[in-house]
Design goal:
342 residues; alpha/beta; Rossmann fold; Dihydrodipicolinate Reductase, domain 2; 2 domains; 6-stranded parallel beta sheet; 9 helices; 15 strands; 27% strand; globular; GFO_IDH_MocA-like_dom; NAD(P)-bd_dom_sf; nucleotide binding; Gfo/Idh/MocA_oxidoreduct
């Protein structure tokens, strides 16, 4: 599969590191508004002879690739996607899928019309314990999930654009947790309510802390508590989780500790007795590997003419949670998540 990568900034390193582990992929072009940056990436990864350019259409005309890897800033996502799809390329894009609900829907519809594979690097699905939790919940070991709770508290000093952007937590990070919640309990959202605020100790401009509640179809409720400026007791980048089922609960600290308890048909005083139950290890069919896992799935989808797990048509539902949470925070009201986003 010949691939042109567009956007040679810092994130492109993760993509190129993963791509060189996939023998089916040949990078044939690098595109960036700064040609020198693209040339530097070519030298760094020993991509001798690849096409270098500042104009995606021109490089696509020159190289005629089968796919485009989109690692540009979200504001440029629609333009890049339309260019790739107009050249009959399959498309794998960095998250978020788009910078607005309208642009997200436009990209998904254009990919469908073009008959091309379109997927998003929503790499938190490709974490081992996320896969284990989904399989465990599907087994019914703690009954049907009813309540999902996630805590995300870290305090990174990024510098640069993040400290100036609005809705920084929801736009920049929360989609990872939102998408993982959707995946683990196999449910889609229908309503959102969210509050954002800026703590006195924050070094961000706006939206570094947020609490959101989502109603999922099937009677499930997901709560999210997060902060980009909470020093002390830092959570994992994967967040910390409690999932409550009809017959028990599961707790994951976001690192390695994954435990579950199920209720027994006996009662001691006020409470049902519970017993610890083991969460099984990964199954050999579980796909992991972060960026590498997503890229491998994308390649298989193109080869087999199937839909990848993180297709744009699915990922738009997670992005819909982000934009609905932002709308709720701005308006102070509960927001219905649009049908096309759920």
């Amino acid at each position: 599969m010949n691939v042109v990568l567009v956007g040679c900034g810092a994130m492109s390193k993760a993509w190129l590191d993963a791509a060189r582990e996939v023998p089916e992929i040949a990078i044939v072009g690098l595109v960036d508004l700064d040609a020198d940056r693209a040339k530097a990436r070519a030298r760094e990864y020993e991509l001798n002879g690849v096409a270098i350019g500042t104009n995606l259409d021109a490089v696509l005309d020159q190289t005629q690739p089968q796919a485009v890897f989109d690692v540009v800033v979200p504001a440029a996502r629609r333009e890049v996607a339309f260019s790739a799809l107009s050249h009959h390329c399959h498309l794998l894009t960095e998250k978020p899928l788009a910078d607005s609900p309208d642009n997200a829907l436009a990209i998904v519809e254009r990919a469908l019309q073009a008959g091309r594979v379109h997927a998003v690097v929503q790499n938190r699905r490709y974490v081992a314990n996320v896969r284990r939790i989904r399989r465990f919940l599907d087994s019914g070991a703690i009954g049907a999930p009813t309540s999902i709770h996630a805590d995300f508290f870290v305090a990174p000093h990024f510098g640069g654009f993040r400290e100036e952007m609005r809705h920084v937590l929801l736009l920049d990070m929360a989609i990872h947790t939102f998408d993982a919640a959707r995946y683990m309990v196999n449910a889609d959202p229908k309503r959102a309510f969210c509050l954002e605020w800026e703590p006195a100790n924050s070094w961000y401009t706006q939206g570094s802390s947020a609490t959101a509640v989502f109603e999922f179809h099937g009677g499930k409720v997901f709560t999210y508590r997060g902060s980009w400026c909470a020093d002390g007791f830092r959570t994992s980048w994967e967040a910390g989780w409690r999932i409550v089922g009809t017959r028990g609960s599961l707790i994951w600290d976001g690192f390695d500790a994954l435990t579950a308890e199920a209720a027994r048909p006996e009662r001691e005083g006020l409470f049902d007795r519970v017993e610890a139950i083991k969460v099984p290890p990964l199954d050999e069919s579980d796909r992991i590997g972060g960026h590498l896992g997503v890229i491998q799935d994308f390649v298989r989808a193109v080869e087999n003419d199937t839909e990848p797990e993180t297709s744009g048509a699915d990922n738009i539902k997670s992005l819909g949670m982000v934009f609905s949470a932002i709308e709720s925070a701005e308006t102070g009201r509960r927001v219905e998540i649009a049908a096309e986003d759920a």
